[in-house]
Write a structure and sequence with these properties.
Layout: H1 4-27, H2 32-48, H3 50-61, H4 66-84, E1 91-96, E2 101-107, E3 110-114, H5 122-133, E4 137-141, H6 147-163, E5 171-173, H7 179-186, E6 191-194, H8 198-205, E7 211-213, E8 219-223, H9 229-241, E9 251-257, H10 261-270, E10 273-276, H11 279-289, E11 290-291, E12 294-295, H12 304-311, E13 321-325, E14 343-349, H13 352-365, E15 369-375, H14 379-388, E16 391-396, E17 438-444, H15 455-459
Parallel strand pairs: 3-4, 3-6, 4-5, 6-7, 8-9, 8-15, 9-14, 10-13, 13-14, 15-16
Antiparallel strand pairs: 1-2, 2-17, 11-12
Length: about 450
C-alpha cells in the first residue's frame, strides 16, 4: 500500500503534468516561425543576463567562478540558437523522391529534465530550447544545491515568453525538491533527459519512459609525437582550469611523448601550472581530491589555492592548474580518474600505441564513452587514435572543455548533455540535440518501378 508521502508526491507531480499537457496541446498548433521565436527568446534571456546568472550560480553552489560561467552562458546561448535557427522541426520535414518517403515531425509531449548543480543555468536553457523547438513542454527538476538559481532562470524565461503571448507553463520547474518527486516526474513524463550524477541517470533509465542520459567524463588529452606542444599546452590549461574544473568535458590527463615530457612540464609551469611529482605531494593531492575512494565534495569546483589548502600545500599565487605526475594509470592510481577541480594528471608514453594504452586504462576507470582530446598534425595518427579508443567524440587541436559540447569551430551539435553510448551505459553516443526530442512519422508510397533483384543476383557468386 502506498504511504501518504508517495500519494502526496504523485498528486503534486500530476498537477505539473496536467499544466504541461494543456500548454503543450496549444503550443503544438503554432507555426514553425512562432516556435522558433520562442526558442530564440529563451536563449536571449540567458545571453542578456549572463553576468547575473553567473553570479547567483556561484553564490548558491559555491562552485566554479563568475568569469567563466558568464562566458559559458553567453557562448552556449548563442551557439545553441545559431544551430537551431532555420531548421525545420514542425510538420512535413522533407520528401525523398528516390525512396518515396515523406517525414513528418511530431512532438514527444512532455519532457522531464534532470539538471546538475555544475551547470544549473545553461542546462535548463538548452534543454528548454531543444524541447520547445519540437513543440514540446518541459518540466525541470533541479539539483538540491542549485534550486534557487535554476528556478530564477526558468522564471525569467517564462516572463519573456509571456510577453510574447506564449501559453503559460510551457517551461516549469519543481518548487518542492525531493527524490520522490523526481521519481514520480520521470515516470509520468513522455521522455526523460538526465544530466547529472550516475544515480539520477540510472533512475531515468529505470523510469519506464524513454530516457536520454549521459555518462561520467574523464577526458584524456594526448599530445602527438612531433606536435608543437607550445601550441597545445595553453589550450589544455584553459580547458582544465575552466570554471574551476567542474566541466565534464574538460581535460583530465595529459599524455605526452617521453622525449618531450620534461619540456612539456616546463611549458605548463611557464603558463601558470604547478607541477607535483614527489610521492608525498602526490598523496596530499589525492587526499584533497578523494575521500574513501569518492570525490571529496569540498574540492569540487574550487580553485587551485583551495585545493592546495585542502592538501596542506603551498603553491604560487595565480596558479591556474596543478599538474600531478601520476604514478600509474587509473588501474592503480586514482589520479587517472575524474577530478572535479583544476588538477590534471601527466603521463609520458614511449610511442603512440603506449599513449593509447594509458588513455584506455584511464577511461576504464572513469569516462569510457565520453571524449578524447588529441593534438596532432597527422591524419594517420588521428585515425589510429579514433579507431582504438572507445569514446563518442574526438576533438582535434582544440580546448576540450569549450569544444566537445559543440563550437562555432567544429561540427558537433551544441549542447550541455553529451551521450556516451553503450560504453557509458547511455542510449545515445552523440551530443543531445533537438532531434532527440522529436517523433518522426514516415509516409511510405508504393513504388512500382523499383527494381527487384533476381535470385541469381541475390545469391549467386560474384
Amino acid at each position: 500500500m502506498e504511504n501518504k508521502e508517495t500519494m502526496d508526491s504523485k498528486a503534486y507531480i500530476d498537477e505539473y503534468i496536467a499544466r504541461a499537457r494543456k500548454a503543450q496541446a496549444e503550443f503544438e498548433k503554432m507555426s514553425q516561425e512562432e516556435v522558433d521565436r520562442a526558442v530564440q527568446t529563451i536563449g536571449r534571456v540567458v545571453y542578456e543576463n549572463a553576468q547575473y546568472f553567473a553570479e547567483i550560480a556561484v553564490e548558491e553552489t559555491g562552485m566554479g567562478n563568475v568569469e567563466d560561467k558568464c562566458a559559458k552562458n553567453r557562448q552556449k546561448a548563442g551557439i545553441v540558437w545559431n544551430n537551431l535557427r532555420g531548421k525545420k522541426s514542425r510538420g512535413i520535414l522533407e520528401t525523398n523522391e528516390e525512396t518515396g518517403i515523406t517525414t513528418v515531425a511530431k512532438p514527444m509531449g512532455v519532457v522531464a529534465a534532470i539538471t546538475p548543480c555544475t551547470n544549473p543555468i545553461v542546462t535548463p536553457m538548452s534543454n528548454s530550447m531543444f524541447a520547445l523547438k519540437c513543440g514540446n513542454a518541459i518540466i525541470i527538476t533541479p539539483h538540491h544545491k542549485s534550486v534557487k538559481c535554476s528556478t530564477k532562470v526558468v522564471e525569467m524565461m517564462n516572463e519573456a515568453l509571456a510577453k510574447e503571448g506564449y501559453p503559460e507553463n510551457l517551461i516549469q520547474i519543481l518548487g518542492e525538491h525531493s527524490r520522490e518527486n523526481t521519481r514520480n516526474l520521470i515516470s509520468s513524463a513522455d521522455v526523460v533527459v538526465a544530466t547529472g550524477g550516475a544515480g539520477m541517470v540510472n533512475a531515468a533509465y529505470s523510469s519506464g519512459r524513454p530516457a536520454l542520459g549521459v555518462g561520467a567524463g574523464n577526458v584524456q588529452c594526448i599530445i602527438d609525437e612531433g606536435y608543437d606542444y607550445k601550441e597545445a599546452v595553453p589550450k589544455i590549461i584553459k580547458g582544465r582550469s575552466y570554471d574551476n574544473g567542474i566541466i565534464c568535458s574538460a581535460e583530465q590527463s595529459v599524455i605526452c611523448p617521453e622525449a618531450d615530457f620534461e619540456d612539456i612540464l616546463k611549458e605548463f609551469e611557464a603558463n601558470g601550472g604547478f607541477v607535483v611529482r614527489d610521492k608525498e605531494g602526490l598523496e596530499k593531492i589525492r587526499g584533497a581530491l578523494f575521500e574513501d575512494g569518492k570525490t571529496n565534495r569540498h574540492s569540487v569546483g574550487q580553485n587551485c589555492q583551495k585545493v592546495a589548502e585542502l592538501a596542506g600545500m603551498e603553491i604560487p599565487a595565480g596558479t591556474k592548474v596543478i599538474v600531478a605526475v601520476a604514478e600509474g594509470t587509473g588501474a592503480t592510481d586514482s589520479l587517472g580518474g575524474e577530478k572535479m577541480a583544476p588538477v590534471i594528471s601527466a603521463y609520458a608514453y614511449k610511442d603512440l600505441d603506449d599513449g593509447i594504452r594509458i588513455a584506455a586504462e584511464n577511461l576504464e576507470r572513469d569516462g569510457k564513452g565520453h571524449s578524447v582530446s588529441f593534438h596532432s598534425d597527422s591524419e594517420e595518427h588521428i585515425a589510429k587514435v579514433a579507431e582504438n579508443l572507445c569514446v563518442s567524440r574526438f576533438v582535434i587541436n582544440q580546448c576540450s572543455s569549450n569544444s566537445t559540447g559543440g563550437s562555432y569551430y567544429n561540427g558537433l551539435n551544441p549542447t550541455n548533455t553529451l551521450g556516451c553510448g553503450s560504453w557509458g551505459h547511455n542510449s545515445i553516443s552523440e551530443n543531445l540535440n533537438y532531434t532527440h526530442l522529436m517523433n518522426v512519422s514516415r509516409v511510405a508510397r508504393f513504388m512500382p518501378d523499383n527494381y527487384v533483384p533476381t535470385e541469381e543476383e541475390l545469391w549467386g557468386q560474384d
